[in-house]
Amino acid sequence: MKLTGLTVIGGGQMARALVGGMLESGCLDAEELTVVHKTASTGTWWTENHPGCTTTTDTVAAVASAKVVMLAVKPHIIAEVMTVQDEQGNSADWNDRLIISIAAGIGLDSLTEQAGHRRVVRVMPNTPSLVGEGASGFCAADGVDDDDVELVKTMLESVGIAAQVTDPQMNAVTGVSGSGPAYVFLIIEALADGGVAAGLPRATALQLATQTVLGAAKMVRETGEHPGVLKDNVCSPGGTTIAAMSTLEKNAVRGAMIQAVQASANRSRELA
Ligand SMILES: NC(=O)C1=CN([C@@H]2O[C@H](COP(=O)(O)OP(=O)(O)OC[C@H]3O[C@@H](n4cnc5c(N)ncnc54)[C@H](OP(=O)(O)O)[C@@H]3O)[C@@H](O)[C@H]2O)C=CC1
Ligand SMILES: O=C(O)[C@@H]1CCC=N1
């Protein structure tokens, strides 16, 4: 299934990752994409990186020409976008369009109220969508039919995996996978720093750290084993890993990660 008539409002980091991944996967052609930007350099980025797409600052016209509208602005800009008027004082017509919001925190009740209809899907994607390894959660309002859900799943699965959850669970999705890449980037950076501290050249340390995280994630996914079992398999009795695990537990890394997820989920709730 190909996505046609997509207007994306907000051409920042997450739009670049998600829509960039969709274009790369072939689920969307650049000719079917309109990006609404505010800053000129953002429009230029899109036309240079995805030739064939349309860029504009006219939100009202871009919504009028769309079948599907993706809201990819910061949460506090959503209300401004939904009530935007053009120079002639015309408001955007959100009717007859599937609305997909990727804004953290903004729930379906608020989105449907602002859209004036209930054909609305809330999505929490993540930036690895850019390389086809995204992890997205989504929930749909009751005006969304099965075809719309299929379309959204096709779109998200073209760049990774997609899990349908409830609206309140979207905050937890934000904590785990929306914000999650940042925690993992931090871990990769820290692993590499450790390698440098132990005497490796920086480039070698970063290469080994990156492949280790990728390999460990792949093992969890492909063996289906509990991560605790896989961890035990690395810990030789009296060996190096159990010495390292003891240090990680002493420094409460497990608790820190749980609290990081909760802090992100709580912040997502606050953004509502
Ligand atoms: N970053 C991430 O990993 C994730 C982000 N999200 C969500 O995605 C959304 C965007 O976040 P992110 O991409 O990080 O933020 P960015 O700041 O990178 O992008 C936001 C974009 O919004 C644009 N913008 C602001 N006002 C308007 C307007 N009135 N009309 C059109 N465009 C406008 C800006 O455009 P311009 O450059 O033209 O000024 C900017 O590029 C947020 O709601 C966030 O919660 C969700 C999951 C993950
Ligand atoms: O930091 C944020 O608010 C966004 C939402 C999830 C990831 N980035």
From TrEMBL:
Keywords: Amino-acid biosynthesis, Cytoplasm, NADP, Oxidoreductase, Proline biosynthesis. This is Pyrroline-5-carboxylate reductase. It comes from the Bacteria. InterPro entries: 6-PGluconate_DH-like_C_sf, NAD(P)-bd_dom_sf, P5C_Rdtase_cat_N, P5CR_dimer, Pyrroline-COOH_reductase. The gene is proC. It comes from Rhodopirellula halodulae. Its EC number is 1.5.1.2. SUPFAM superfamilies: 6-phosphogluconate dehydrogenase C-terminal domain-like, NAD(P)-binding Rossmann-fold domains. Catalyzes the reduction of 1-pyrroline-5-carboxylate (PCA) to L-proline.
